[in-house]
């Protein structure tokens, strides 16, 4: 791959790769590192692709897998730290609106992370990276119809998880206030 071809791949693919890595890892710094590692692999292996699009799809697969590995490793580390130090990770209140916005974002991310990986990645590609169903199917090696089914199921499951979270909070508030309901 010539330097001009590499630059072309880099300039067209980096924004997409960064979005994917950022949404999976939840870290800008990690996302940059994961993208750079993918491009390093491409350069190091001196891979040649018939089209720019094929190179982009290969890089997306590499970044997706590396990002999931990073996220899993960070989750294991976080659990180990919490267990070892029994730290309280609650945030101090800086303003009601900011607090509600952060809690909502955290709840959605938490629910998103509870989705099975095959559903979560489709939703990330569709909603955060804004890819179409055909592109997602090519990257994941599944049919466009299967992508649509997974996206639908992911949205349904995400909605259910968020509703359960809200119901749990309502029950918690009611129990703190001594409110009981007879069914």
Architecture overview:
- The chain is globular.
- The protein is built from 7 helices and no strands.
- Helix 1 runs antiparallel to helix 2 (28-44), helix 2 crosses helix 3 (52-85) and helix 5 (117-128) packs across helix 7.
- It folds into 2 domains: 1-89, no CATH class; 91-178, Orthogonal Bundle (Arc Repressor Mutant, subunit A).
- The mean pLDDT is 85.
- It has helices at 3-25, 28-44, 52-85, 96-114, 117-128, 133-140, 144-176.
- The protein has 183 residues and is an all-alpha fold.
Shape: globular
Averaged pLDDT, please? 85
DSSP, total strands:
0
Count helical runs. Answer: 7
Q: Rg from C-alpha positions?
A: 20 Å
Q: Assembly state here?
A: single chain
- What helical percentage do the residues reach? over 70%
* Class of secondary structure makeup: mainly alpha
Total tally of structural domains = 2
The description of the largest β-sheet is:
none
Head-to-tail CA distance between termini = 69 Å
How would you summarize the topology of this molecule?
Layout: H1 3-25, H2 28-44, H3 52-85, H4 96-114, H5 117-128, H6 133-140, H7 144-176
Helix pairs in contact: 1-2, 1-3, 1-5, 2-3, 3-6, 4-7, 5-7, 6-7
Summarize the structure.
This protein has 183 residues and is mostly helical.
Please name the defining characteristics of this protein.
183 residues; mainly alpha; 2 domains; 7 helices; 0% strand; Arc Repressor Mutant, subunit A
């Amino acid at each position: 791959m010539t330097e001009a071809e590499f630059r072309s791949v880099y300039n067209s693919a980096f924004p997409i790769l960064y979005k994917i890595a950022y949404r999976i890892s939840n870290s800008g710094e990690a996302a940059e590192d994961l993208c750079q590692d993918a491009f390093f692999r491409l350069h190091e292996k001196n891979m040649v692709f018939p089209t720019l699009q094929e190179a982009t799809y290969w890089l997306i697969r590499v970044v997706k897998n590396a990002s999931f590995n990073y996220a899993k490793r960070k989750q294991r580390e976080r659990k180990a730290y919490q267990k070892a130090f029994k730290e309280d990770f609650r945030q101090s209140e800086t303003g009601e609106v900011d607090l509600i916005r952060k809690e909502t974002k955290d709840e959605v991310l938490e629910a998103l992370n509870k989705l099975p990986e095959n559903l979560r990645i489709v939703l990330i590609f569709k909603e955060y990276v804004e890819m179409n169903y055909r592109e997602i199917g090519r990257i994941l090696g599944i049919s466009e119809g299967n992508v649509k089914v997974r996206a639908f199921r992911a949205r349904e499951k995400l909605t259910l998880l968020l509703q359960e979270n809200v119901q749990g909070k309502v029950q918690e508030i009611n129990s703190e206030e001594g409110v009981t309901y007879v069914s």
